[in-house]
Amino acid sequence: QVQLVESGGDLVQPGGSLRLSCAASGSIFSIYDMGWYRQAPGKQRVLVAAITSGGDTNYVDSVKGRFTISRDNAKKTVYLQMNSLKPEDTAVYYCNARIHITTVRNYWGQGTQVTVSS
Dihedral angle at the C-alpha atoms of 46, 65, 62, 6, nearest 10 degrees? Predict the structure, then answer.
């Protein structure tokens, strides 16, 4: 079975930085697109940033210039560097990956809480 395990969520002051990590484990043949989503209280889960297996990235407008997504294919890990954090970035952040075991399907991590508050 495949697991995605996130880490790095924390309480941080406005203007601060955090780095989220998400490591995939299991009998994985290949990992395609990976991404980070977030869900604030009372709101839908939305895509924050995504990265292809070739390294192409895209971001939601509200985080462009502040967040950077990257991946280490050898470690089966995706990262989200978050700088200049704002209170509106407060949410549970979820890792998502399209993974090929015997078939290709989407997998989700359990989520990590990011709280931006003074």
Answer: 30
Residue 23, pLDDT score: 97
State the number of CA atoms in the 13 A half-sphere of 6 facing the CB. 27
Backbone dihedral angles phi then psi of residue 61, each to the nearest 5 degrees: -55, -35
CA-CA distance, 78 to 99, in Å (whole number)?
13
Q: Cα separation of 22 and 25, whole Å?
A: 10
End-to-end alpha carbon distance in the chain: 40
Q: Where are the alpha helices (DSSP H) in the chain?
A: none
Q: Is 15 exposed, middle or buried (0-12, 13-18, 19+ CB in 10 A)?
A: exposed
Contacts of residue 27, defined as CB under 8 A and 6 or more positions apart, other chains included, come to: 2, 101
**Which parts of the chain register pLDDT below 50?**
none
